[in-house]
Structures are given as C-alpha cells and as structure tokens.
Automatic annotation (TrEMBL):
The lineage of its organism: Bacteria, Bacillati, Actinomycetota, Actinomycetes, Propionibacteriales. It comes from the Bacteria. This is Uncharacterized protein. It comes from Nocardioides lianchengensis.
C-alpha cells in the first residue's frame, strides 16, 4: 500500500510542475507502486450550434490528438524528472468534456504482470470468457473482470482504500517492533 504522504508529495509536485495552460481543472494524479498516471482535463471544444453527438465526439478526439502532439516534448521532460525523483514510470492521458459523453484517452501506461493462483471454478469463468470471444486469453479475461469490478464497485473500492489507509496510520502509531 502506498502511503498517503507519498501520494501527496507526488500530487503536489505535479500540481506545481505542470504548465497552468494545460488544465481546465487540476490534474488527476493516480499513484501505485510502479506508475504515476497524470490525467489532464483540457478545455472542451467549441462546435457549431446543433452539431451531432458524432461530430462533437470526433472534434474532441481530434483535439486530444493535437494536444498530445503539441505537448509531447514538455510531457516527456516532466516525466523524466518525475521518474528520476520518484522511481516510478509516468503515464499520461487527457479528458475533454463532462458527463457520459466526455472524451478520455490514456496515451501511455504500464502493463504489469500479476501472478495469481486460481482454482478450477475461477479458471472456468476465465475459460468461458475466452471461449465466448470476450477475451483472447485467460490473462485478458482476468483483466476484463478487474475492469468490470472497478466500473461497478467504485464507491466500495474507494471506501476500502480509505479504510486501508486508516489501518496503516494506526499501525504507524503503534509500538516499534
């Protein structure tokens, strides 16, 4: 578990280091043991009155692509500084718009292998997803399951992370071993 102080240090550093022009809102900085993901919210696009949802979506996708290209050198320099400072890879993404029709992209990210042992009933779930064409492999099926839980249990996971953080705080206050 990453300590809250470490997360705060990293978030604070990025808040001070990112160019102000890049954000319509504060960057969303997510930290784990291997990676720091910086999700930037840039000003939404302006389209003609009465533009279809498809046109708006494509305008946002085009703006995200342009932003990626325009900021590449600066993002790479910031990432190198952060990687040296915090020992984690830095990944980038962007969000435009709000609500269900918002456009979001992650341009770079770390795929970390995770070893697990599963009993036959769990393997059968993964094999069913593979056989049905939902996933190409058991690894893809497991990643699909994790994404699904993340989408549908976000509040519960946030509460669980908060509780885990409180447990770490209590442990830190305890007697030295």
């Amino acid at each position: 578990m990453i300590q809250d102080e470490t997360r705060e240090r990293i978030r604070g550093w990025f808040a001070g280091r990112l160019p102000e022009a890049w954000s319509a809102a504060p960057a969303e900085v997510t930290v784990d043991r291997e990676e720091v993901t910086v999700l930037l919210t840039v000003p939404d696009v302006t389209t003609a009155e009465g533009a279809s949802a498809v046109e708006v979506a494509e305008t946002r996708a085009g703006r995200a692509k342009a932003f990626r290209e325009e900021t590449r050198e600066t993002r790479m320099a910031i990432a190198r500084e952060a990687e040296h400072r915090y020992g984690r890879k830095v990944s980038w993404g962007v969000r435009l718009g709000e609500g269900d029709d918002a456009h979001g992209e992650l341009w770079t990210h770390v795929s970390t292998p995770v070893m697990t042992r599963l009993r036959q009933p769990q393997r059968l779930v993964l094999d069913t997803l593979v056989d049905a064409g939902v996933a190409r492999s058991r690894a893809d099926a497991l990643a699909w399951c994790v994404r699904l839980v993340g989408q549908h249990e976000g509040d519960w996971l946030a509460e669980l992370r908060d509780a885990t953080g409180r447990v770490a705080d209590v442990r830190a206050k305890g007697p030295a071993a």
